[in-house]
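Supplementary Text 2. Reproducibility record for the structural model of the 86-residue chain.

All settings were left at their defaults, and a single model was retained for analysis rather than an ensemble. We include the record here because the model underlies the residue-level annotations in Supplementary Table 4.
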Amino acid sequence: MRRFDDLRRYARGQAPELYLYARSANPTVDLAARKVAALEGAEAAVVTASGTAAAFVIAIALLETGDEIVAMHSVCSAPSASSSRR
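Retained model, structure tokens:
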């Protein structure tokens, strides 16, 4: 972004072509996602920084209020540490 106006448009969500080079979006990750989608014959793809992040994205996309996940205690320490146990 070269001008303050660009930053203002970006903040309003009116400039999807601009990148702030934050963790949320950057041209390298977007290019990787487009390449993966093309290789898989998919409309789009999501690239995450870790397997744990990928598992979270899948859970958020598929689970609804009231759904439960049944998993072994040793599946992965990060997701199981953030989930409640009954």
